[in-house]
Design a protein that fits this description.
Length: 121
């Protein structure tokens, strides 16, 4: 079966209005609409950097106990988490996997690293 949703764990975590730390979440693969429609958003037209905020709010389906993700939540992420999610988004939408092929620098053994774990490692 083709996988369209990927679990992740934020390196720091989102602190909600009740003070709860939310680190585990789910991101789905982006559709063409996810990438095109935010461009029409006035916030994106005023500030192109806001595109990532809208885009992530569309593709993250769950974050901790939060099931409704909106731009305000993404705005409230720590910088390390935003960076992690941008990288995670690019990885799963580029090759449909949340893992990368790598080589051990000491023994040159090739292996695959799953990026669904804490902090992406």
């Amino acid at each position: 079966m083709f996988q369209t949703e990927y679990e992740f764990t934020l390196p720091v975590g989102y602190v909600d209005q009740d003070g709860n730390l939310n680190r585990e979440g789910v991101m789905r693969l982006a559709t063409a609409a996810d990438e095109i429609l935010p461009i029409k958003d006035p916030r994106v037209q005023a500030n192109q950097a806001y595109l990532v905020i809208i885009l992530l709010s569309r593709v993250i389906t769950r974050l901790g106990s939060l099931s409704q993700i909106n731009p305000k939540i993404i705005e409230g992420l720590f910088a390390a988490d935003l960076s992690y999610l941008q990288d995670f988004y690019n990885r799963i939408n580029r090759n449909g996997k949340a893992s990368i092929q790598t080589i051990c620098p000491k023994c040159t053994h090739e292996f695959e690293v799953e990026l669904n774990h804490e902090g992406g490692s």
